Known about the structure:
mainly alpha
Amino acid sequence: MANNKSSKKRIEIAERNRLRNRSYKSALRTLMKRCFTACSAYSTEAGEAGREAVQQSLNAAFSKIDKAVKVGVLHRNTGAHQKSRLSAAVKGTLEPAAKA
């Protein structure tokens, strides 16, 4: 256990940051899953409403990734990797439907 004031403060700050990081990462995983789910739903039944759902979920996930990188929850390369993953999934879903 902490013996002095500064170490007690560091413990409090570490706990605060841990909770913040956990909430960002949890929300991020949820938004990414929603995007992948919207992509799979659109691929089974293409339509304008499905396309709009995919776009909205992609925008929400991108926004959360950018905020997590800005705050320092994620490394910028990790954020770029996740955004690339989402973009590839959306592009793979929307492109074949546009050609058909």
